[in-house]
Write a structure and sequence with these properties.
Strand order of the largest sheet: 7-6-5-11-10-9-8
CATH class of one domain: Mainly Beta
Strand content: 15-25%
CATH architecture of one domain: Roll
CATH topology of one domain: PH-domain like
Distance between the termini: 52 Å
Shape: flat
Structural class: alpha+beta
Largest sheet: 7 strands, antiparallel
Number of strands: 20
Number of helices: 15
Radius of gyration: 29 Å
Length: about 550
C-alpha cells in the first residue's frame, strides 16, 4: 500500500547508516559527483532491510508484568472470596504466566517479521506473520518524523519513530511507525527525512523561539481539565473500593465523617476535596506534558517542539506546511491574561493525532509571550493575532442572548414544573435560585460572546475570532484559502446576517466568521481572496440589468 511523504535518510545511497546508541552522529554525505571523463557515476546498490531493536522484548515484558499485577490483584481479591486462598493465588499466577508468555511470543513474531528500509525515493515497512503487509511512503511527500519515548524506552535508549505524510484523507494509512529503534538512529532518520534547504533561517537568528518558564504552571488549574480530574478521582476511589469489596466501608466513612454537618456544608466540603484533587492532578498532567519544553526553528526552517517529563516527545513541523496559528483562550486562562498557541498546518488532522496534540506550539502563557512567539513563528514584524478587528452587527448580540437565556431557562422550567406537579415546594424554591444565578450568568456570557466576534485582514493573513468559554483567534494565510462557504439560516436571513467559512487544506479545514453582516462579510471575503468570490458577487445594479458595481455597502446587499 502506498501513502504520502520527503527527504533523505539512513540507508540512502551516498549516506552512512545510523550510528549505534551513544555514538556520535554520522557526518553528512558528500554530494554525488560525475565520474572521470564526464560519465555519470554508477548507481548505488539498494539499501538493506533493517530490523527493529530486539530490546523491545524487555519493554514488552515489563509492560506485561505491570498489567498482570494491575489485573491480578483485584481478580485475586475477588477469587479469594469464593475459593481457597492458595487456589486463588494459583489461578492468578497461571493467568499471569499465560499473559506474559503469550505477549512475549507475539512480540518475538512481530520483531522477526518486521523490516524497514530507507531508499533514495521511498521509505518501506514490511510486517505481518500470517498476512504480510508491505507499505511505502514516497520520500518527497514525507512531512513529519516524530520521536516519542515513554520511561521504559528511555531507560533502554530507544524511541518510537512515527513517519507521516500529512495526508488527511487517509489518516490511518498515512504514517509508518517503527517501534522501537535506537535513539541515535531515530534522530538520524528525523534529520535525513526532513532535510530541507528552501526556508533556511537567516544567519544570526536565535533558533530558540520559546523556552519553558516554571511560572506558567499557574495556568494549569484554570483549564476545564481540573473539574474533570476531580470527578475522575472520585470515580477511581469508588472503583478500587469495589474491587476489594470495601465500597460500603468508604460510604460509611463519608457518612460518619460528615453527618454532624448540615447538608449544604457537606456538599461544599466534598466539592472542595474534589477540587483540590483536580487541582493537584492538573499540576501533575501539566508537568508531565510540558517539562523541558522548547520551541526551536532548525537551520532548514523546520519547527521542532520538544517536551515531556516521563514520556518525551519530539514533534517536527515543516514551515512550508504552516498556514497560520490559532490562539486559544479558555475562559479561566483568558481571565488571567494568558493563552496558548496551536499550529494550523497541512497534515495535522485531528483524527491522526492519536493520544497527542501534535499542533500545540506553546502551552498557556502570558499574552505578551504569546504575541512574541506567534510573530516569530509566522516571521511577522508584529503580532497578527491582536489586530483591530471589525465588530459584528448588533443583531448577532440578540441571537446570542436568545440562545444563552433559552439554555439557562431549561433547568429552571424543569425544576418549577416538577415542584408544581409533585407538589414539592422545595423544587420551586430551587428553580427560583437557579433562575437568579443562571440568567445573569447567561446574559454575561452572551455579551462576552458577542464582544469576542471579529474579523479583519493583517498583511498576508486573514484573522477571525469567536467564542467565549473557548475563545479562538485564527490568523490564516490568505493564499492558503481554497474556497468560501456562505451559510444563512432562516433566522439569520431575517436579521441580515451570514456565517462565512474560509476553507483550507490545513488544521480544522474551515474557519468561520460567525454572524457577520451580509455585505460586510462578502466584502471581507472579496478583499481577502479576490479571485475566489468576486466573480460570483452580484450587486443591486447588476441584478437590475445595469453594469455591475462594487461590492455593496452594509445594508444594501440584495
Amino acid at each position: 500500500m502506498t501513502d504520502a511523504a520527503t527527504g533523505t535518510g539512513p540507508g540512502v545511497p551516498g549516506e552512512r547508516p545510523a550510528a549505534p546508541a551513544g555514538a556520535p552522529d554520522p557526518a553528512p554525505a558528500a554530494p554525488r559527483t560525475e565520474a572521470a571523463a564526464g560519465s555519470p557515476a554508477p548507481p548505488d546498490p539498494a539499501p538493506d532491510w533493517r530490523r527493529l531493536d530486539r530490546r523491545s522484548l524487555l519493554v514488552t515484558a515489563q509492560l506485561l508484568l505491570g498489567a498482570a499485577f494491575g489485573a491480578g490483584v483485584p481478580v485475586g481479591a475477588g477469587l479469594a472470596a469464593h475459593l481457597d486462598f492458595r487456589a486463588a493465588v494459583a489461578w492468578v499466577l497461571a493467568g499471569c504466566v499465560l499473559l506474559l508468555g503469550g505477549g512475549l511470543a507475539v512480540d518475538v513474531l512481530r520483531l522477526r517479521h518486521t523490516r524497514y528500509r530507507v531508499g533514495a525515493e521511498r521509505v518501506e515497512l514490511r510486517t505481518g506473520v500470517l498476512f504480510t503487509s508491505r507499505r511505502s511512503l514516497p520520500r518527497d511527500r514525507i512531512r513529519t518524523v516524530d520521536l516519542t519515548a515513554h520511561p521504559l524506552l528511555r531507560l533502554l535508549g530507544l524511541v518510537k519513530v512515527r513517519i507521516g505524510t500529512g495526508d488527511q484523507t487517509a489518516a490511518g494509512e498515512s504514517a509508518l511507525q517503527l517501534t522501537p529503534v535506537r535513539r541515535a538512529e531515530g534522530e538520524s532518520l528525523r534529520r535525513a527525512l526532513l532535510r530541507r534547504n528552501t526556508t533556511a533561517a537567516p544567519a544570526g537568528d536565535d533558533p530558540r523561539l520559546a523556552v519553558l518558564s516554571p511560572g506558567w504552571i499557574r495556568y494549569a488549574p484554570l483549564s476545564f481539565l481540573t473539574p474533570l480530574l476531580a470527578l475522575t478521582g472520585w470515580g477511581a476511589v469508588m472503583q478500587v473500593s469495589q474491587w476489594f469489596g470495601a465500597e460500603e466501608t468508604v460510604v460509611d466513612w463519608v457518612r460518619n465523617t460528615f453527618s454532624p454537618l448540615p447538608a449544604l456544608w457537606t456538599v461544599l466540603a466534598l466539592g472542595s476535596i474534589a477540587l483540590v484533587t483536580g487541582f493537584v492532578g492538573s499540576l501533575g498532567v501539566w508537568t508531565e506534558m510540558w517539562w523541558s519544553y522548547r520551541l526551536e526553528r532548525e537551520p532548514d526552517g523546520t519547527l521542532r517542539v520538544r517536551r515531556g517529563l516521563l514520556t518525551t516527545r519530539s514533534i517536527s513541523l515543516e514551515e512550508a506546511r504552516l498556514r497560520g496559528v490559532d490562539v486559544v483562550e479558555p475562559l479561566g486562562v483568558r481571565l488571567s491574561g494568558a493563552a496558548r498557541v496551536e499550529a494550523i498546518a497541512t497534515g495535522l488532522s485531528r483524527k491522526d493525532r492519536e493520544d497527542e496534540d501534535l499542533s500545540a506550539l506553546l502551552p498557556a502563557a502570558p499574552r505578551a509571550v504569546v504575541d512574541e512567539v506567534t510573530a516569530r513563528v509566522l516571521r511577522a514584524p508584529v503580532t497578527l493575532t491582536r489586530p483591530e478587528l471589525a465588530p459584528h452587527p448588533r443583531a448577532a448580540l440578540a441571537r446570542r442572548l436568545r440562545w444563552s437565556l433559552g439554555a439557562a431557562l431549561v433547568p429552571v422550567m424543569v425544576l418549577v414544573a416538577l415542584g408544581a406537579a409533585l407538589p414539592v415546594r422545595g423544587l420551586v424554591y430551587a428553580g427560583a435560585v437557579a433562575a437568579a444565578v443562571l440568567l445573569p450568568a447567561a446574559a454575561l456570557l452572551a455579551r462576552d460572546a458577542y464582544r469576542s466576534l471579529g474579523h479583519g485582514l493583517a498583511g498576508p493573513y486573514l484573522v477571525v475570532r469567536s467564542g467565549t468559554l473557548r475563545r479562538s483567534t485564527v490568523a490564516l494565510r490568505r493564499d492558503g484559502v481554497v474556497g468560501w462557504t456562505v451559510r444563512q439560516s432562516l433566522f439569520q436571513r431575517r436579521a441580515g446576517l451570514v456565517t462565512l467559512r474560509a476553507t483550507t487544506a490545513a488544521g480544522a479545514q474551515a474557519y468561520a466568521a460567525y454572524d457577520v453582516g451580509e455585505a460586510q462579510g462578502l466584502r471581507f471575503a472579496a478583499e481577502a481572496v479576490p479571485e475566489l468570490l468576486t466573480p460570483f458577487l452580484v450587486t443591486g445594479a447588476a441584478a437590475d440589468g445595469r453594469a455591475p458595481g462594487p461590492v455593496p455597502a452594509e445594508g444594501d446587499a440584495r
